[in-house]
Amino acid sequence: MESSRGSDTLALRLVFRAAGAPGRTALPQLMDGHLVQRPHHPQVRAMHKVLYLDTNSFLQLRDLKDLAWTELIPGVKAVDLVVARAVIDELDKHKVGTNQRRRDRSRAALRLIDAASEAESRSIVLREAPVRVVLSIAPRRRVDYESLGLDAAEPDDRLVGAAATHEGAEIMSHDSGPRVTARDLSILAHSPPEGWLLPPERSDDQRKLAEAERRIKQLQDAKADVRIEVLGAEDDGKVVARRLIPPPLPPAVANRLTARLIRLHPPVDLPSAGTGLNAQLRLAGGQAFGEPTIRRYYEDRNQWELEVQRWTSILDRHVARRTSEVKVRFGLDNVGASSAENLIVELETDEELSLLADDEDADGLLGSLTPPSPPEPPKVRPSFDITDVGLSLAQPVPRRDPTAMSWIDRPRFGASRASYGCEDFRPGRKYEDVALAFRSTEAGGGLVRIEASANHMPARAVEVQIRFEDASVEWTDERVLAALPPDVAEAVRAEFS
Q1: Residues 90 and 238 in one domain
Q2: Which of 19, 109, 359, 428 is deepest in the core (most CB within 10 A)?
Q3: In a domain, 393, yes or no
Q4: Residue 144 and residue 229 in one domain
Q5: Residue 274 phi/psi, 5° resolution?
Q6: Does residue 383 sit within a domain?
Q7: Hey, CA dihedral for 397, 403, 405, 407, is it positive or negative?
Q8: 28 in Cβ contact with 35 (< 8 Å)
Q9: Are 110 and 95 in contact (CB under 8 A)?
Q10: What three-state secondary structure class fits 160?
Q11: What is the pLDDT of residue 14?
């Protein structure tokens, strides 16, 4: 038997329809014993829509942020997509299902919903333009399912009931059931355009066949393919080797800079053993130093201070020489399906350039931007040192890492060719390196050739044109400060600030 409240609702619908009321927009609804009128403002509602989504909106449609919402609602400027609890419950069930696509899309949807629930507004913006799309969580409101003629046990009815409590809300569903129920309650209901749907899911047999074909192709194409990419080139494809030439430091500035650098390494106060029998005991016990040791330490300190002074006085030359180094950054990327076995990377220059193995070689040839190091103070030796015992334990020989890069032909001074590599350059591995060189002449440029080869893989090579440039700079130039060690750069900055 129908309840009196349900009879009242039905009677009200009949009265309004018989009176020629303007369809669903004039139809009142009974919520918790109260009549609620759903006002209709065509222009405002066309600009902003509130849509309650069904579960299939997340499972069967393309990503919500990518949909053309003006195709569904012409002229719309903002869409608030609301997720009801019934939909969240359904997604929770699908996330552990056996259908992979539904499982993956459910989990992706739940991640978005979790993000919205954690926001203070309980919503997140999916897209700003041309239509602003917001995903939000439906507010908790009590729904009088009986008065609306709905069944709380049915997920579709729970979705419609949630939308009925949200003034001005509409529904979007790919299923006719919730759309018909919504229209019974004078709620606008939309069906997504066919173009929004994902491609049909393949059957299990189709998926197995496609996977088998993929594996066969993978086996057929299982070969290494190491690509070379030059990094940091200019728009014309050339790498610029820019030598920085600062002015000589004024003597007063050089002296102050020297003092700053020396203060960074204050001398160590060495305890003196003194003279007499006590001195012998203190020396034997490793508690103090003899006068010759102390004197030698301070003589070394004085010599070091002179070296720092000489180094600082020609710091401009150090900068110019060190920044004349040529650096070609490049990357290796194995985009193939198998390892590149016995990978060899060959470096070659023309007569304008000579190769360097590493920064240490560059320091030895071009000079270092690191100031001379202070002498190490003598160390107090304990009266008993386990190293005196001469105990020696056999150490196991470390196993060679087949993926580690190592020199095959390390470049010597003036070399124009060099090579290095590894035994196993695996699929998907990316490796970045720098080819170091210095100018052999004062020509305007040079060339570096990089080639990668491996077993059962065609060789690949790139040629990099180098353009030499000289740049007169001030000491406050960030490029100069970046080239200097941090403590030296800080001292230089302090002098010229």
Answers
A1: no
A2: 109
A3: no
A4: no
A5: 75, -150
A6: no
A7: positive
A8: yes
A9: yes
A10: helix
A11: 31
- Considering the domain architecture, whether residues 155 and 62 belong to the same structural domain is answered as yes
Beta pairing class for 78-83 and 132-137: parallel
What pLDDT, in 10s, does the model give residues 119-163?
999 999 999 999 999 999 999 899 999 999 999 999 999 999 999
Query: How far is the C-alpha of 70 from the C-alpha of 60, rounded, in Å?
Result: 19
In the structure, what pLDDT confidence band is assigned to residue 3 with cuts at 50, 70 and 90?
very low
Distance CA(19)–CA(194), nearest Å, equals 37
Same domain, yes or no: 331 and 412: yes
Are residues 369 and 292 part of one domain?
no
For residue 208, what pLDDT is reported?
Answer: 83
Residue 391 is assigned to a structural domain of this protein: no
If asked whether residues 349 and 494 sit together in one domain, one would say: yes
Stated as kind and residue range, the H or E segment containing 310 is: helix 291-313
Where in the sequence is the domain holding 264, given as residue range(s)?
A: 249-313
Q: 471: domain CATH number?
A: 2.60.40.3670
279 & 354 share domain: no
Task: Report how far apart the first and last C-alpha atoms of the chain are (Å, whole number).
Answer: 91
Question: Would you say 134 and 78 are in contact if contact means Cβ atoms under 8 Å apart?
Answer: yes
**Do residue 94 and residue 49 come from a single domain?**
yes
DSSP string, 460-483: EEEEEEEEEEEEE--TT-HHHHHH
pLDDT of residue 91: 94
Token code pair at residue 186 = 């004078």
State how far the alpha carbon of 296 is from the alpha carbons of 86, 303, 402, in Å: 85, 11, 48
Helices 291-313 & 315-322, crossing angle to 10 degrees?
A: 70
Q: How confident is the model at residue 45 (pLDDT cuts 50, 70, 90)?
A: low
- The alpha helices in 64-202, defined as continuous H runs, are 69-72, 85-94, 100-118, 145-148, 155-164, 176-184
* Angle between the N-to-C axes of helices 85-94 and 155-164, in degrees from 0 to 180, rounded to the nearest 10: 150
HSE-CB at 151 with a 13 A cutoff on CA atoms is 7
Q: How many domains does the chain fold into? A: 3
- Pairing relation of β-strands 326-334 and 226-231? antiparallel
Whether residue 394 lies inside any domain: the answer is no
pLDDT at 377: 87
Asked if pLDDT for residue 13 goes beyond 60, the answer is no
Q: What is the pLDDT of residues 197-233, one digit of tens each?
A: 998 877 777 878 888 888 777 666 678 899 999 998 8
